Each structure stands twice: as structure tokens, then as C-alpha cells.
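Design a sequence for this backbone.
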């Protein structure tokens, strides 16, 4: 691309090794990986602050700190990339709740996923052995599985036996996998983890979500960041600065003309956004293939300022950082099926974060915050406040009496907040079988484009959504091995 006078004026750099467009977790991970390798790096972010989904704000009342999108970080705790960083030295401290996640049921019972695998097995009683065989097996083999699962599906595995064994457990639907359990507590506990897929639990491969996320409770926990997820963004920016990388916020990139000269560009964007920027710098055939990539369902989220912690009927649920609210496995499947059919369930599956119970710095005067969202059809405009609150009240009578203030955010709000969240999709694309196996398309080089200068490094690439940084890290390694070698 020829240099323009405006480029030279706005960016006083010699030709850079790499530009990263987008300062979400993957964009920052890519920048850090390249800077560690001694490359010159500039990150451009359209928003006024970096972080993408990792931001914290006073959404309800002064002093009440709410995580705007990502809040609980099991993937970050287990990510090889994040484990390679000294995050605490840069101000990001992981806080581990007493119980990683819980699943309340009618009548006051609940399934509990403890940090300890053995404690979870014991607590599940007659289903403990099956939890050990399914989830425990993944936990015990995590060191072999992590490098395989947190990267492209299409690759030659270094641990083929472990991957084959995982595949046998992961290929079925969550509904089929849960038949191994006899109690509703164990079925619900597994279903709540599997429903992070945004899919009906009768779909193939939904068992993989249940296995992966449930096992992470025993591998590294389901922690939160003290003070809010925004602290994690600040830590990554600080690490990048120490490595000599630069970041510029308030710099929207709409075309290649908005970029200073560089050897490569990595896009922490949706496939459609990247195509809009690169224009005819990629072939039509590739463009047509990439435009088939589809977003997933959206979210409707509520943030609360509360006078006290939620009065869950089961007191052990108050010890959990994350609570999956949805009832039985069949109820959750029904709710997710309705969402995927373009409907709004009366009894949605609700994900609840109780950060202030373990991080009192989130609120003033002994108050509490609550983070809760449900899945809705992509682009939905329906207010789901009543449905979400009915579900929480179902398992915590008196919840509404604790509400001081609330902030609501539907799909349109989320897309306005972050253009990557198309129609409220916070996962970087639908988790259909084809988009799980081929993300964003069938290729042995998932992060590359036909133009050797351009790489895609967002959640629309392997291993997909979640705060783990592995998409950006692996894309940067691919760039180092090919274009920047």
C-alpha cells in the first residue's frame, strides 16, 4: 500500500513490523507475543479505552464497579499464554471464590463444582464416580490436552491418544453425555457448563463445552479479577509498554488508508469487519467464503447494585462465584432451543456472577453487585428483565427486595459498545459444528488470509470465545513463522 501524507503525519513511525487492529484480549496477546520476539508493534483501538470485553465501569451507582462483558475467567486461569505472564506484578490479581460454580434446583438442592475434584466427586454422591470418569479425566489430562484444545482443530496432535479419548467424550451432545448421571444435581451442573455454548444441549459437540469448562473448575478455578476485569486489560497494556509496544485509542480503522506502513496487520475483529477494511486486497473467492461465517445468539444483561448478597435458598450457592440459573437439564435445553429458533424463553438460562461476595473492593458501604445475563436471538430488542428476575427469584425468594439500582444492556447496546459484538453476539460467531471445526473456515492455517500481510486473530479464530488470549498468541506465532520469519 502506498504511504500517504496523512499516515506519516498521524503516526510518526518508521515502517513497523506489525499493526494490530483492536485492543481486545486477543489483540493485546498478539501484540505482546510479537513484542516479546523483538518486533515493533502498534495497536490501534477505536474505543477510548483498550480491553474489548475486559472493561469495568460504574454502570449503576457511584462506586459500584461492574464488569461490562467478561467477568469470570476460567480460561484465563488455565491459558498457557496468560500463565506465561506475571499479571499480578502488573496489577491483575486473580480472586478465587470458595466454590467456582453452582447450579441451584427447585426445593433447595444444588449441584456444586468445588475447586477440589475429590470434594466435588464426594458431594455428588452416587454420581461422583461418573463425574470422575468424565470431567475428572479431562482434569487429570489437562497438561496434554491444553495445547491441543486451545488452538486449531485441524492439526496433527502431539498427544493423539489423549485427543482421541477426549474426542470420544466430547463429540456427543451434552444431553447424551449427561445420561451418565442419575441425579438432577449432577445433570444440572454439567448442563450449566455446556450451555455456555449458546446451543441447544441436543446438538453434537455440546458435551465438549461441559467437559472443558467443568474441568477448568478443578484445573485453575473460575476466578475473577480483583477490582474488575478492566484491571486485566490494564495489566496487558502495561506488559506491552514494558516490551516497547505502543497502543493508540480513539483510532478507528475503516480502510487500509487509515494504517501507517507496516510489514503485517493482525485484525482482532469479526471477519466482516476485516473484509470491510482490506477491500480488494484479498481475493473474491476468499471474501465469499468468509462472508458465510455467521454470528451466534445475542445476550441481554443486567447489572445490579444490591443492598445485600442474594438470598439463595441453598446457602452453599452463596459461596459460588458463578451461578447457573435455569433449573433442570431439560429446562435449559428448552430455553436454548427457543433462542436458536428465534424465540424468547419465559424461563431463560441465566448466568449470574457474584463478584462482590469475594471482592469487596467492587462496592462502597458493604453493598453488593450482581452480573446476570441470558441468551436471546441475535439482534433481539426485547427487554428480558422480568424473565431474568423471575428466574433468580425462583431460587432466591426475596431477591427483588435487595435491588437498589439496575442497568440493562441488550444486543443493540452491546454492538454499539463494541462493533465485534454483532447483534449482541459476544462469542465471536455461532458454535455450529462447522464453525467449531472450521473457524472461521476450513484451513490448515486458520489465522492466515490469502494476502500474506494480513492475519485474523479474534474470537472468530481458534480456539474461539473467552478471555484466554490464545487466538491472538497463536496468530502472532503464525505470523512470526511465515511472514516475519
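Sequence:
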Amino acid at each position: 500500500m502506498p504511504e500517504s501524507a496523512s499516515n506519516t503525519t498521524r503516526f510518526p513511525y518508521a515502517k513497523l513490523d506489525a499493526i494490530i487492529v483492536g485492543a481486545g484480549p486477543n489483540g493485546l496477546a498478539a501484540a505482546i507475543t510479537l513484542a516479546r520476539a523483538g518486533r515493533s508493534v502498534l495497536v490501534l483501538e477505536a474505543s477510548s479505552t483498550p480491553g474489548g470485553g475486559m472493561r469495568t465501569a460504574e454502570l449503576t451507582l457511584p462506586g459500584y464497579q461492574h464488569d461490562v462483558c467478561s467477568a469470570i475467567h476460567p480460561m484465563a486461569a488455565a491459558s498457557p499464554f496468560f500463565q506465561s505472564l506475571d499479571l499480578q506484578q502488573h496489577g491483575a490479581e486473580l480472586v478465587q471464590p470458595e466454590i467456582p460454580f453452582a447450579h441451584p434446583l427447585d426445593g433447595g438442592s444444588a449441584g456444586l463444582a468445588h475447586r477440589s475434584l475429590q470434594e466435588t466427586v464426594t458431594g455428588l454422591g452416587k454420581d461422583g464416580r461418573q463425574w470422575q470418569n468424565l470431567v475428572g479425566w479431562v482434569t487429570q489430562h489437562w497438561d496434554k490436552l491444553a495445547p491441543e484444545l486451545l488452538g486449531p482443530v485441524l492439526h496433527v496432535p502431539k498427544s493423539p491418544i489423549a485427543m482421541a479419548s477426549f474426542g470420544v467424550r466430547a463429540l456427543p451432545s451434552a444431553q447424551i453425555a449427561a445420561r451418565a448421571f442419575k441425579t438432577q444435581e449432577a445433570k444440572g451442573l454439567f448442563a450449566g457448563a455446556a450451555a455456555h455454548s449458546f446451543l441447544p444441549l441436543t446438538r453434537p459437540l455440546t458435551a465438549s463445552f461441559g467437559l472443558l469448562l467443568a474441568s477448568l473448575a478443578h484445573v485453575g478455578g473460575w476466578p475473577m479479577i480483583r477490582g474488575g476485569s478492566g484491571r486485566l486489560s490494564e495489566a496487558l497494556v502495561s506488559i506491552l509498554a514494558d516490551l516497547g509496544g505502543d497502543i493508540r485509542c480513539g483510532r478507528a480503522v475503516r480502510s487500509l488508508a487509515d494504517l501507517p506502513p507496516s510489514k503485517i496487520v493482525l485484525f482482532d475483529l469479526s471477519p466482516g469487519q476485516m473484509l470491510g477494511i482490506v477491500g480488494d486486497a484479498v481475493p473474491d473467492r476468499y471474501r465469499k467464503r468468509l462472508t458465510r461465517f455467521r454470528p451466534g445468539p445475542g445476550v441481554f444483561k443486567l447489572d445490579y447494585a444490591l443492598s445485600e448478597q442474594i438470598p439463595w435458598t441453598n446457602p452453599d450457592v452463596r459461596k459460588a462465584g458463578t451461578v447457573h440459573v435455569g433449573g433442570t437439564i431439560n429446562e435449559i435445553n428448552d430455553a436454548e432451543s427457543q433462542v436458536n429458533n428465534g424465540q424468547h424463553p419465559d424461563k431463560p438460562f441465566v448466568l449470574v456472577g457474584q463478584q462482590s461476595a469475594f471482592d469487596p473492593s467492587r462496592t462502597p458501604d458493604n453493598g453488593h453487585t450482581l452480573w446476570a445475563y441470558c441468551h436471546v436471538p441475535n439482534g433481539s430488542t426485547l427487554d428480558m428483565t422480568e424473565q431474568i428476575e423471575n428466574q433468580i427469584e425462583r431460587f432466591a425468594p426475596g431477591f427483588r427486595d435487595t435491588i437498589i439500582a439496575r442497568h440493562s444492556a441488550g444486543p443493540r447496546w452491546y454492538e454499539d459498545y463494541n462493533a465485534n459484538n454483532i447483534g449482541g453476539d459476544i462469542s465471536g460467531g455461532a458454535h455450529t459444528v462447522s464453525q467449531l471445526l472450521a473457524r472461521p473456515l476450513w484451513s490448515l492455517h486458520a489465522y492466515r488470509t490469502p494476502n500474506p500481510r494480513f492475519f485474523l486473530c479474534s474470537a472468530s479464530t481458534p480456539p474461539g470465545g473467552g478471555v484466554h488470549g490464545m487466538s491472538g498468541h497463536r496468530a502472532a506465532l503464525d505470523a512470526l513463522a511465515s511472514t516475519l520469519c
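Residues 200 and 481 are 39 Å apart (CA to CA).
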